[in-house]
Amino acid sequence: MTGSSHLIIDEPAAQLGRNLTYGLLDNIGRAIVTGQFEKAVFPTEAELAKQHGVSRSVTREAVKMLTAKGLLSARPRQGTTVQPTSSWNLFDTDVLRWMLERKLSIDLLRQFNELRVAVEPEGAALAATVAGEDDLARIDAGLERMQAAEHGLDDPLEADIAFHVAILRASKNPFYIQLRDVVSTALRTSIRFTNRIKGRSADVAEHAKVRDAIAARDPDAARIAMRRIIGDVLGLIEDRQPAGE
Amino acid sequence: MTGSSHLIIDEPAAQLGRNLTYGLLDNIGRAIVTGQFEKAVFPTEAELAKQHGVSRSVTREAVKMLTAKGLLSARPRQGTTVQPTSSWNLFDTDVLRWMLERKLSIDLLRQFNELRVAVEPEGAALAATVAGEDDLARIDAGLERMQAAEHGLDDPLEADIAFHVAILRASKNPFYIQLRDVVSTALRTSIRFTNRIKGRSADVAEHAKVRDAIAARDPDAARIAMRRIIGDVLGLIEDRQPAGE
DNA sequence: ATAAGTCGATTCATATGATAATTGTGATTG
DNA sequence: CAATCACAATTATCATATGAATCGACTTAT
């Protein structure tokens, strides 16, 4: 890894980390998402193995995992091919992380928040119906962290994530709960942008409204309050990038 | 089902289909989701291979795919273990299909529609903003199929799916588009229930309202109309099962 | 000349046996 | 009793061989 100026990976062994398969998964996954194979044909498994300095078993297992995530498809004689992005599983945290790491386009950030604006208000409404005491406690804890973060006593991003994740969890709906990982992955990876966008102190007051609505078992109020929070973020994003597509 | 009274699978070879790996993936995935390993410890890769009459390579690749979908986790010495359901990727169509096939609980159906009631209205609103001519054409086509189905000239379920999928696609948001597969998989697999629930002729009129709102570029109207459609379904489900959990 | 069929090369799919790496468990020792 | 060490179990990795599927070129028959 010193003077090597090769474009091809070609490192004989491992900066793949302790686990070769998972390291290779990460490398290839990132390469696919970065678009490195959009023009070129995807290598054969033998070439992949040689380029990364691992055995074909490891290669095959990594390829199989990428297949399971919708990024690849393998057939005899035809070879292994990259699937169109429409079949990638965006709700897989690996795929999402690769996409966010590659360039973090404002488009992707907007699309992600368009998802949040649908899911989180409804999740808050559900939470208002079914949340238990422990759920409320977690939501309170998240809110308190946000308040602490206002005075520099906690990390604002992590506090925000804790709050939103607590609400999704309180919905008691597996689909919403699943989105915990998606939301926290996306928020954490896109720190650069979110920092510019967030940081307004009105935030905490608006979050408190959500909490209160859930505690008061008022689904409609919870939905509206949460929608305002994410709508604000979305508005800021769209301001920065007026014309999409 | 016939005379075989073995609990263990133990078939020496393949009713796994042409592709052993994918057949094994399906078998093990279904077994996990069915809860066959909740009490018992998960077999070692050697045992798995022997039980299914395949090589360890095939076993390992199937296990790796299940790992990628969040169902399994493998570590040396500790063995391969089934992950808690909270880490399963429900937005993976395989996982979802296995879950819907296993027993199709009303709970799962309700939770799925709780997701739809969040996503699809917002998707319709987005579509009203960004849909192109081709998108509108697809939505119209879906609506026409529903009208045809009213007179027995088309399959009502497939027509319904086509309509909803067309709208998700028209949103131009990859996250929403991704849910196409989820929605169609779930609707198609849960025919038994949806047949009982749907089939009211008011449906087509309500769907037409969504279409008109999108064509008129009216996001709010589209959101409200779509919300009513899915809210109706949700109401019927909750009627059947008053107390959840 | 066109159509169908044959053959071969390429690539993934599968099998097998051996070795390495990791880590829980229990024995050992201070 | 605690810390350490040795062992064993299990996955991780490697190397090699064989099978199966498919595309393309070539051949052959009509």
Automatic annotation (TrEMBL), chains A, B:
Gene3D superfamilies: GntR ligand-binding domain-like, Winged helix-like DNA-binding domain superfamily/Winged helix DNA-binding domain. Keywords: DNA-binding, Transcription, Transcription regulation. InterPro entries: GntR_C, TF_FadR/GntR_C, Tscrpt_reg_HTH_GntR, WH-like_DNA-bd_sf, WH_DNA-bd_sf. Residues 18-85 form the HTH gntR-type domain. Pfam families: FCD, GntR. GO terms for molecular function: DNA binding; DNA-binding transcription factor activity. SUPFAM superfamilies: GntR ligand-binding domain-like, Winged helix' DNA-binding domain. PANTHER family: GNTR FAMILY REGULATORY PROTEIN, TRANSCRIPTIONAL REGULATOR, GNTR FAMILY. This is GntR family transcriptional regulator. The lineage of its organism: Bacteria, Pseudomonadati, Pseudomonadota, Alphaproteobacteria, Sphingomonadales.
